[in-house]
């Protein structure tokens, strides 16, 4: 396990970390991705859904599969068409107690998401969390890379002028945390399904628990 940095840079995933993506937003994104693939690749809806899921399972992101197998597709257009902001914002369900917890955490904070930057910015603004973060990163901010690619983490660190060992990565994906741990980051597995693993420094179910954990580490205002 890492020694938790005393002046950390908190890197927050977005989907299913800062908001409940599974309650509606992911369903909408998946539907629009499927419709886009069906149209562009001339597939049935069922075939397009299979392609979308296959690329997500194999590469960690549908976008990655498109980059690898379909160079004729404009990935920026794909991201725009699959993230219709008015509908997504309507379906947004923020994580409970997020603002209070962010306010209590000592150190710098940034959002590090595999979603496109316009989506990240819109959701953070809608949740009224902008003042808690010094930077918001989406996949187009680090060269259309994505977690768990090492280069995506290193690019975010470079943009923040931070070392990996200074960072605390908070994510609902164990695979993303494994990559972060290999680079030297402190790792927090967030969500109701989290549990202890060798590469996880803390398994935390919700924001209130994160606040308490930070306090025990001397990283919350309650610890002062």
UniProtKB/TrEMBL annotation:
Gene3D superfamilies recorded: 1.10.150.450, HAD superfamily/HAD-like (3.40.50.1000)
GO MF terms held by the record: 5'-nucleotidase activity
Alphabetized InterPro entries for the sequence: HAD-like_sf (IPR036412), HAD-SF_hydro_IA (IPR006439), HAD_sf (IPR023214), Pyr-5-nucltdase (IPR010237)
Entry keyword set: Hydrolase
EC number(s) recorded for this UniProt protein: 3.1.3.5
Domain of life: Bacteria
Coiled coil: none
Record carries keyword Hydrolase: yes
UniProt keyword annotation of Nucleotide-binding present: no
Name assigned to this protein: Pyrimidine 5'-nucleotidase
Organism in which the protein naturally occurs: Neisseria wadsworthii 9715
């Amino acid at each position: 396990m890492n020694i938790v940095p005393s002046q950390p840079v908190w890197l927050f995933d977005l989907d299913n970390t800062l908001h409940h993506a599974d309650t509606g937003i992911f369903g909408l994104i998946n539907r629009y991705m499927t419709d886009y693939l069906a149209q562009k690749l001339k597939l049935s809806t069922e075939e397009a859904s299979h392609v979308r899921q296959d690329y997500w399972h194999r590469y960690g992101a549908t976008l990655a599969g498109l980059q690898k197998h379909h160079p004729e597709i404009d990935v920026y257009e794909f991201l725009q068409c699959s993230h219709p902001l008015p509908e997504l914002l309507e379906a947004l369900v923020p994580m409970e107690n997020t603002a209070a917890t962010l306010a209590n955490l000592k150190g710098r904070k940034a959002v590090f998401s595999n979603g496109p930057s316009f989506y990240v910015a819109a959701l953070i603004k809608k949740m009224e969390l902008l003042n808690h973060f010094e930077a918001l990163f989406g996949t187009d901010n680090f060269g259309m890379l994505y977690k768990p690619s090492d280069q995506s983490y290193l690019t975010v660190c470079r943009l923040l002028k931070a070392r990996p060992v200074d960072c605390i990565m908070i994510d609902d994906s164990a695979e993303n945390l494994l990559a972060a741990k290999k680079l030297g980051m402190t790792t927090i597995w967030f969500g109701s399904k989290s549990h202890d693993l060798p590469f996880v420094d803390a398994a935390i179910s919700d924001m209130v628990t994160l606040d308490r954990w930070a306090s025990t580490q001397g990283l919350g205002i309650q610890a002062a």
